[in-house]
Please model this.
Amino acid sequence: MPDFADLFRLSPERNVNIETFGGKFPVVIVDGFYERPEEIRAAALTLQYREPTHLRYPGRLAPIPANPSLLTAVDSVTHLANAEFLSRAPILQRGEPITSLRVVETDFAIVDRHPDELEPIQRRPHIDLVPVFGLVYLNHEDRGGTLFFQIVRDVKGAAGPGYFTEGDKYFRLVGKIEAKFNRLAIYPGFVYHSGEIVGDWIKGDERFSNPRLTQRFLLRP
Model:
C-alpha cells in the first residue's frame, strides 16, 4: 500500500475558470488541481475496487484512506462549491434555498463495463443523488469527459444501445466538460448528464488495464 499521507497536496499553480452550459448552469473548472497527479493515479490503481451497491455506476469504486492531505483537498472542493458554484446557481431543497454545501464522500472510480453489459438505466443520461458533484479526471489518454443534456420529451423507458454520448429525440446535448488530466470539475448533479464513454478501449482489455479513472466528490447540504 503506498503512503497516502501527503499525496493530495494541491498545486500552487492551479487555475480556476467558470463555464456556463445550457445558457444557465455554471461549471467550475480547476486545471492543475493536484501537485502530484501522476502519483495519485498510480496509488489509486493499487486499491481494491468493488462493484457499487446500486446499478447506476458502470464500473467499480474504491474508498480512499483517510489522511491530512485528503482533508485539505476536500476543504478546497467545498470552498469552491460554495464560493464559485452555489453563488452562481441557487439551489432549492424542499422549497428553501441551500445556503452551503459540504463534501459528504470522496472515492476513486473506474469505468470498465462493456457497452453490451449495461443495464437500461445506464444507457441514458442520469441525475445524481446529490445536488452538486465534483470530479477529477486522472487519465492522460482520451477516456471521455462529461456530457450534459436537456430533456425534450418524456424519457420513461427510453434507452438506446451502449453508452449514451449523443442527443436523440428524448435528450438534447447542451454542454461538455473536456477530460483534461488533473482537471477538477464541479457541476450540478441535478442536470441530466453522462460520461463520454466512446472508443475501442471500453470494448477490449484496456477497460481493465487502463480504465477511465476519476476521483469523485459528492456534495450536499
